[in-house]
Specification:
The complex is a heterodimer of chains A (330) and B (299).
Chain A lengths: L6 H14 L3 E4 L9 H6 L1 H4 L3 H8 L3 H15 L25 H4 L4 H8 L5 H10 L15 H15 L7 E4 L4 H13 L3 E4 L6 H7 L4 E3 L21 E8 L6 E6 H8 L6 H5 L15 E3 L4 E3 L6 E2 L3 H7 L6 E2 L2
Parallel strand pairs in A: 2-3, 2-4
Antiparallel strand pairs in A: 5-6, 6-9, 7-8, 8-10
Helix pairs in contact in A: 1-5, 4-5, 9-10
Chain B lengths: L2 H17 L3 E6 H7 L6 H4 L5 E8 L13 H5 L2 H19 L3 E4 L16 H7 L4 E2 L6 E2 L6 E8 L17 H10 L3 H5 L5 E5 L5 E7 H8 L4 H11 L3 H9 L1 H12 L9 H4 L2 H5 L5 H13 L1
Antiparallel strand pairs in B: 1-2, 2-6, 3-6, 4-5, 7-8
Classes of the chains: A alpha/beta (330), B alpha+beta (299).
């Protein structure tokens, strides 16, 4: 017990000391400038007392007051507020309703965390794709124009946010209609999620369970567009799509793709997106994109459009990917 | 106080101005002691002190008000000039007039931590008549120079004291109008942690002004950054989290500053950035001051 101060003493005296200290200062009038001693004396406690003054008032030792005050300050003060300074000035004003602490921005649910940990790109490949410009900072959202489709996507994305979709969580889209499927994809991405287009004739239940999906949607949610979407803008290396390779095994094989792998396959063509959503080639979106290579007489492939790994399926990952990142064709 | 004392005061003022002070005033040390708490009176630093000399140097450049908060401390502060004037004055008084003098350090009291200053430079300047308390957490403002940086010298030399300002420039008319319209002045409205509030009468007089200093400190003092870092690191569940805490960008920046001793702390200044007195007073603008000096030289 430093200075003979117990936890109970901190609890009992903490608020009194905090309120008497300089942490809270109230001034009435302008007594010092006007040399109004009597008025100043009357409000001395409200303007904040020094530790010896607090000790004199409370009957504690001064060292005890200083110790309790500093501990209470530490416990009561909100941490990491100074990060607000990084977005102040230079034409920017603080808006509490628009501020998000950087750490909170990247808080992921357990399911979203698991998905991230299943993404495994070999470092040599990453360096090659970045150096060659196959992978860039562009996301799939950069394919959108400011048109009616964009507005529709924003409404659906806002609806997903209103429904509680967390960053990096999976939405299973069960749509027969191509336009709805496309809207579901872009809305999920805009809301910071990962989209899983359910193949026709596949049961959603087992797939959704394996992906720990936030929701299976058969209708597009709608809500007024919200600026909260700005905080959910994905990075190009974020997971974007889960494609069903096979659902017949005991453990489904769901291939994870990032914005970068998808964009490589699309070659910048928005019109090709719908084809990807129903592609049979879940793992390798294209063998023809620049940077793709084969070996073992074409039985092993790698390239910038190759998936990042299977979700929660280490057996399949071990069976279908070599240690150095080549995908073994069936 | 005799005529010699008045002459000496003017000579000291001239000395301070030549070295870069914009404002100069003197407070009676005993009077300061009636407002300051025991342990924080001038006599507690210099037994036998008779006078408190308060000097103010001009605030940021005009460009600084447009700069991001992360560089405000580096580009906005003018503490080097204070040091030059105040330390120079203390030596000057001793060597020319033979009275013991000290430069008053602007630091917190090491016995009590970050909340208590050794001395209130604000109190010295206010009683010396070179600043008045504003609604922005009692930051002193000067009607001509806006926001000044203050320094104090304690001396055993008896000098004729000045009076506090007759009028308080805060709130400015435009701020009072805003308060009457929306219930807040600009400094209160734009504070990122909402640590300021007040009730004013029709003439702008302060019925009650509240400053939640702890909220301001949360933002501005990077409160207990290193202990917090260590505490978080000890409690981290996984290696990646611990590495981010100890070796991430913020930790690197902190340890760099701590070891290199550079002043790259981010600083808020939002209450002053939106204050018309701080940013638009006639002599607060170095560009305008330069133009005036040029015109005077041409005349």
């Amino acid at each position: 017990m430093p200075y003979a101060v117990s936890e109970q003493m901190i609890e009992a005296w903490g608020d009194v000391i905090f309120d008497l200290s300089l942490n809270k200062q109230i001034r009435r009038g302008d007594p010092i400038r006007l040399l109004e001693h009597a008025a100043w004396d009357r409000q001395r406690e409200d303007t904040g007392l020094s530790d010896p003054e607090i000790a004199n008032k409370t009957g504690l030792a001064c060292e005890q007051v200083t110790f309790i005050r500093n501990i209470v300050e530490r416990r009561r003060f909100r941490l990491d507020q100074y990060r607000k300074l990084f977005r102040l000035g230079g034409g920017l004003r603080h808006r509490e309703d628009r501020y998000q602490d950087p750490e909170e921005k990247f808080e992921l649910s357990e399911a979203a965390n698991e998905l991230r940990q299943c993404m495994q790109f070999p470092q040599e490949e990453v360096a090659r794709f970045v150096a060659a410009g196959h992978w860039t900072g562009q996301t799939l959202l950069d394919l959108l124009d400011e048109d009616d489709f964009h507005a529709s996507v924003m409404q659906a994305a806002s609806g997903l946010l209103a429904g509680g979709l967390g960053r990096g969580e999976v939405i299973v889209g069960d749509f027969a209609d191509e336009a709805e499927n496309l809207t579901g994809l872009f809305a999920t991405l805009m809301a910071g999620g990962v989209y899983l287009p359910l193949p026709a004739g596949t049961s959603a239940e087992a797939i959704a369970k394996h992906a720990s999906a936030h929701a299976v949607i058969t209708e597009l949610p709608r809500a007024d567009a919200t600026t909260d979407l700005l905080d959910r803008r994905p990075a190009a290396a974020d997971p974007a799509l889960l494609l069903v390779s096979t659902s017949s095994d005991a453990t489904p094989r769901l291939a994870i793709h990032t914005h970068q792998t998808m964009l490589c396959a699309l070659a910048g063509e928005f019109d090709a997106v719908a084809g990807l959503l129903t592609s049979d080639a879940a793992e390798l979106l294209s063998t023809t994109v620049p940077g793709s290579e084969t070996r073992e007489d074409g039985r092993q492939v790698r390239g910038p459009a190759l998936f990042a790994g299977y979700l929660n399926n280490p057996e399949a990952n071990a069976a279908r990917r070599t240690a150095d990142g080549w995908f073994i064709l069936d | 106080m005799d005529a010699d004392a008045e002459t000496s005061k003017q000579a000291l003022k001239t000395y301070a101005m030549k070295r870069g002070a914009a404002a100069f005033g003197i407070a009676d040390a005993e009077l300061v002691g009636t407002y300051a708490p025991e342990g924080h009176r001038p006599v507690d630093l210099l037994p036998g002190v008779a006078s408190v000399i308060s000097i103010g140097v001009t605030g940021p450049t005009q460009g600084t008000w447009r700069a991001p908060a992360k560089v405000m401390t580096s580009v906005g502060a003018n503490v080097g000039r204070i040091y030059r004037v105040a330390v120079g004055l203390s030596f000057h008084i001793e060597s020319h007039y033979g009275y013991r003098s000290i430069y008053c350090p602007p630091h917190v009291d090491p016995e009590f931590g970050a909340r208590l200053p050794l001395q209130s430079l604000k109190l010295h300047a206010e009683l010396a008549g070179i600043g008045a308390r504003s609604l922005a957490g009692d930051i002193l403002l000067h009607p001509d120079y806006g926001m000044l940086y203050y320094g104090s010298i304690f001396t055993e030399m008896p000098l004729p004291p000045d009076s506090p300002m007759a009028d308080n420039p805060c709130p400015a008319p435009s701020c009072l109008k805003m308060y009457q319209d929306i219930g807040q002045t600009p400094c209160q409205k734009f504070c990122p942690v909402q640590c300021l509030s007040a009730t004013l009468d029709d003439d702008g007089g302060v019925e009650e002004s509240t400053f939640d200093m702890y909220r301001c400190a949360e933002l501005c003092q990077q409160y207990e950054n290193m202990p917090t870092m260590v505490e978080k690191a000890i409690g981290a569940d996984e290696r990646l989290e611990r590495e981010e805490i100890l070796y991430g960008a913020e930790a690197q920046s902190f340890f760099y500053k701590a070891t290199a001793g550079v002043d790259t702390n981010a600083q808020c200044f939002e209450c002053m950035r939106v204050c018309p007195i701080a940013t638009q007073s006639p002599m607060s603008d170095p560009i305008r001051r330069g133009q005036l000096a040029k015109e005077e030289a041409e005349d």
